[in-house]
Specification:
The chain is of the alpha/beta class and 474 residues long. The chain is built from 14 helices and 21 strands. The strands form six sheets. A five-stranded parallel sheet has the order 4-3-5-6-7, with helices on both faces. A five-stranded antiparallel sheet has the order 8-9-10-15-14, with helices on one face. Strands 20-19-18-21 form a four-stranded mixed sheet. Helix 1 runs parallel beside helix 7 and helix 11 crosses helix 12. It comes from Haladaptatus litoreus.
Length: 474
C-alpha cells in the first residue's frame, strides 16, 4: 500500500497540454455521473487496453493465447504477479527502448532520483516487502491522473474560507513523510516535482520517518506546512505531539496514507490539527486507487482502474466480504501494462451508494500495517519507532527478500528473514543486525537484543494475512 504522497499537482510535462486538458475534464465530468456511465467508461477503456496489449506486449500476447480475441470478460484472463512481470520485464513493456538491464542501472543510481528514464519515463520502485522488489515505468497519462484524481475528491475540502486562509498564510507548503534513499514513489516523485514544477519547487519538502520523532517535530515546527501528507502511523504520533504541545503547526489539510488508519485515529488527527483529514489508498502500480470523500468513505477511481476483490483461488468474493487479495487493472499506463495484477491487499467492496452523492464504488482496505513500538531512550524518554521505518532498514540490506520483525519482550526484537538466492545468509544477517543496531542507536535507543529467528517469514495461520511488524509481548 502507498499514497499520493508526492502531492496533487504533479504535471506530466511531456504530455500535450490539450490531451492533458481532455483527461482532466473527463475526470471531473465523471465525478457526479451515474454508476452505469462509470461502468461504460471503464469497459470502453478496458476493451481498448486489452486490444492494445495483445498487439504491443509480447508477454501478454503469449499469456492470453487461450483467451478468445475480442473477449473483455476479465475473469477469462489469467492474473499476473510481480515476480512474473519482473522475470519477463523486457517482454511486458511496450517500448522496445526500455530494457530491464538499463532500468536496473538507472534505479541503482540515486543521483537519478527524480529524473526520467530516457528523458521520458519516470521510474518508481517498491521495497520488496512481499518477496521481490518491483520496478514500474510510468507514462504521461499515469502522471496526469496522479495529479487530477486526488483533486477530484479533496478539492471541496480546500475551498472553505478558513482553509484557503491557511493555505495562503503558509504559502501552500507541503510536508511529505516518505521513505528516502531510493526511487520509491514518494521520494522519486517529490524530486521530480522539484525539477519540473516551478510553483512547487520551493513549496514541497520530504521528511523521512526514519529520523527521531523529536527531530521531525523540530523541522516541521520550522517549516510550518500548509498540507501534511504521509504515513498514517507517523501522522498519528504527530497528532499526539500536537495535542501535548511539542508540535505547533497549523495545516489546512492532512492526508494519512500508505497504512490503514481507523476512524478513531482520523478523528484524533482532525481534532489535533483542527482541519479536514482525508485518507488515500494508492500503490506504486496505480496512484491513487481510492480517495476518501467528505462522508468518510473511500471511493475507488473505477473509471481508470478495475478493482477485483478475490479469494485465494482468484475467484470473486461477494460485496461486503473481505478479500484474500485484490487484482487491479491499470487502464492508463500503456508502457508497462498491468492487467489483473495481484496487489496483495485485502479489501472489502460495498454495493451501496455513498451519502456524498457519488456513484463511485466504496471500498475498505486492510493493507500493510504494523505496530508502533515505544522504547525508552538513554535519557529516559519514550521514543516511538514506526513500522515502515523499522522494516525499511532491513529491506534495504542487499540480499533481503522478505522480512518480519516481532517484539517478543520490552527490549527484544526477533527478526525473520528470507534471503535471496546467491547471498550468504550469515553475511546478510550480520548486516541486518548492524544496520538495525545503528538505526536504534541513532534514535538513542540502546540495550536492545536482536535475535535471528530460525523460522522464515510466514503468514498468519488463521487469517492468511502477511504481517510485517508487530508486538507479541505481554
Amino acid at each position: 500500500m502507498s499514497s499520493w504522497e508526492d502531492g496533487s499537482l504533479l504535471e506530466a510535462s511531456t504530455m500535450n497540454p490539450i490531451t492533458k486538458g481532455k483527461i482532466t475534464l473527463d475526470v471531473w465530468r465523471a465525478k457526479w455521473t451515474t454508476r452505469s456511465a462509470i461502468e461504460t467508461r471503464q469497459q470502453r477503456r478496458l476493451a481498448d487496453m486489452l486490444s492494445y496489449v495483445r498487439r504491443q506486449s509480447r508477454f501478454y500476447k503469449q499469456h492470453y493465447t487461450d483467451v478468445p480475441e475480442g473477449c473483455t470478460d476479465l475473469t477469462q484472463f489469467p492474473p499476473v504477479t510481480k515476480p512474473m512481470l519482473m522475470e519477463h520485464f523486457d517482454d511486458v513493456v511496450t517500448d522496445t527502448a526500455i530494457t530491464k538491464a538499463e532500468i536496473d542501472t538507472f534505479v541503482a543510481d540515486e543521483s537519478k532520483i527524480g529524473h526520467r528514464f530516457l528523458d521520458r519515463y519516470p521510474v518508481w520502485t517498491t521495497s520488496g516487502t512481499t518477496g521481490e522488489p518491483g520496478i514500474f515505468v510510468q507514462d504521461d497519462t499515469s502522471l496526469a491522473l496522479l495529479g487530477v484524481l486526488p483533486d477530484r475528491w479533496v478539492l471541496d475540502a480546500l475551498l472553505d474560507i478558513d482553509t484557503l486562509r491557511r493555505l495562503v498564510k503558509y504559502n501552500f507548503r507541503q510536508a511529505v513523510i516518505a521513505i528516502t534513499g531510493g526511487h520509491f514513489l514518494g521520494a522519486s516523485a517529490f524530486a521530480l516535482l522539484q525539477r519540473e514544477s516551478t510553483f512547487l519547487e520551493n513549496r514541497i519538502r520530504l521528511f523521512s520517518p526514519t529520523q527521531p520523532l523529536d527531530d521531525l517535530i523540530k523541522t516541521l515546527n520550522r517549516y510550518q506546512p500548509a498540507l501534511l501528507m504521509g504515513y498514517a502511523t507517523v501522522i498519528v504520533e504527530l497528532a499526539r505531539a500536537q495535542r501535548d504541545g511539542y508540535l505547533d503547526i497549523n495545516p489546512a489539510f492532512v492526508s494519512p496514507a500508505s497504512e490503514p488508519v481507523s476512524a478513531t485515529q482520523k478523528r484524533d488527527i482532525e481534532r489535533a490539527f483542527d482541519c479536514e483529514v482525508r485518507e488515500a489508498y494508492a500503490a506504486t502500480e496505480f496512484d491513487p486507487i481510492a480517495i476518501e470523500c467528505g462522508h468518510g468513505n473511500l471511493h475507488a477511481n473505477a473509471d481508470w482502474v478495475v478493482v477485483e476483490p478475490v479469494d485465494d483461488n482468484y475467484q470473486p468474493v461477494e460485496p461486503g466480504e473481505p478479500s484474500e487479495t485484490v487484482l487491479i487493472t491499470n487502464l492508463a499506463n500503456r508502457i508497462q501494462p498491468l492487467i489483473r495484477y495481484d496487489l496483495g491487499d485485502s479489501i472489502t467492496m460495498y454495493d451501496e451508494h455513498c451519502p456524498c452523492g457519488s456513484a463511485f464504488p466504496i471500498i475498505e482496505v486492510e493493507g500493510r500495517q504494523g505496530d508502533v513500538f515505544h522504547f525508552e531512550t538513554t535519557d529516559g524518554r519514550d521514543r516511538p519507532v514506526f513500522p515502515l521505518a523499522l522494516s525499511s532498514v532491513v529491506e534495504e540490506v542487499p540480499g533481503v527478500r522478505r522480512t518480519q520483525l516481532i517484539r517478543t519482550a520490552p527490549s527484544t526484537l526477533r527478526v525473520r528473514l528470507e534471503v535471496a538466492s546467491g547471498h550468504d545468509e550469515a553475511n546478510v544477517w550480520e548486516q541486518v543486525r548492524t544496520d538495525l543496531k545503528t538505526f536504534l542507536e541513532d534514535q538513542r535507543i540502546t540495550d536492545i537484543t536482536l535475535e535471528k529467528a530460525t523460522e522464515s517469514p510466514q503468514r498468519n495461520p488463521r487469517s492468511g494475512k502477511f504481517r510485517h511488524v508487530w508486538s507479541e509481548q505481554i
